[in-house]
Amino acid sequence: MELIPLHKLFSVQYGNSFDLNVLELCDENDPDKVNYVSRTRENNGISAFVKLRDDMDPFDSGLITVAGSGNSVLESFIQYSPFYTGYHVFLLKPLKYMSDFEKLFYCFCIRQNQYKYSFGRQANKTLKDILVPKEIPTEYRLQ
After folding, report:
1. By the 8 A CB rule, do 92 and 12 touch?
2. 103, 110, 6, 88 alpha-carbon torsion, rounded to 10°
3. What is the DSSP letter of 42?
4. What residues have CB less than 8 Å from 107, skipping those under 6 apart?
5. Counting C-beta atoms within 10 Å of the first and last residue's C-beta, which end of the chain has fewer, N or C?
6. CA 6 to chain centroid
7. pTM over 0.85
8. Is 99 helix (H, G, I), strand (E, B) or coil?
């Protein structure tokens, strides 16, 4: 199985690093709500619902978010709704079309590297270079 750096499959960028206290919290049913993704491993990384800001468009659904530091370093999730991010959250956008199944596979692969970041190590500088399979191995593909 050929391994390649993550940046060969995804555009890796930093999120918008909003502090939750500068955003307006709202109810999950609010029509102007946007998910707030932080470095939590709970609830697909979503830690709050906030009001849409006039000065900042949210990120598009379908991107993968990855925690770059903290106790949940390398927790990775597909975001199914538009969202803002907190500090040290990265965005992965596939360089070519990927199904949700493929994205979930790469979330799994990223998480398998968590052991390298124990004792407070951060993935902020090294995330883009984490090695992952170039393609999904045959035994993992959907039939």
Report:
1. yes
2. 100
3. S
4. 64, 76, 77, 78
5. C
6. 13
7. yes
8. coil
Name the H helices within the chain: 100-111
**What span, in angstroms and rounded, lies between the C-alpha atoms of 96 and 65?**
17
- pLDDT tens digits, 15-45: 998 999 989 999 999 998 999 999 999 999 9
Backbone φ and ψ of 7, nearest 5°: -70, -10
pLDDT, tens digit (0-9, with 9 covering 90-100), for 89-131: 999 999 999 999 999 999 999 999 998 887 778 888 899 999 9
8 A C-beta contact, residue 68 and residue 127: yes
Cα gap 99→18, rounded to integer Å: 29
Q: Please check whether residue 127 is in contact with residue 90, taking contact to mean a CB–CB distance below 8 angstroms.
A: yes
